[in-house]
Specification:
STAS_dom; 43% helix; alpha/beta; 99 residues; STAS domain-containing protein; four-stranded parallel beta sheet; two-stranded parallel sheet; globular
């Protein structure tokens, strides 16, 4: 039996409080299918604490739903935000190579 490929959701460049409501709904919609999901953060060039909170909420929600969730394409902005908030070690296991 072969493993199913994860769906990929590429997030917009802005992951901030100004886009939080729209991104939140996009994430919830993507998790409804209960299929493995990869969030591609390659294009994210601006992220604030609201954006990080959305990602953490998606991780928790996916876990509660039994959905495999991975993060890919960790841009410099994403890495810096995670490091600044002390979350890089916590979220590092979820990162995969974007290649």
């Amino acid at each position: 039996m072969s493993a199913a490929l994860a769906r990929v959701l590429r997030l917009e460049p802005e992951l901030t409080i100004y886009s939080a409501a729209q991104v939140r709904q996009t994430l919830l919609d993507a998790l409804v299918a209960r299929d493995a999901l990869t969030l591609d953060l390659t294009d994210v060039c601006e992220v604030d604490s609201a954006g990080v909170q959305l990602l953490l909420a998606a991780v928790r929600h996916a876990g509660a739903q039994g959905v495999a969730l991975q993060l890919a394409g960790h841009s410099d902005a994403v890495r810096e935000a995670f490091a600044l908030l002390g979350l890089d070690a916590q979220l590092a296991p979820r990162f995969i190579n974007a290649n």
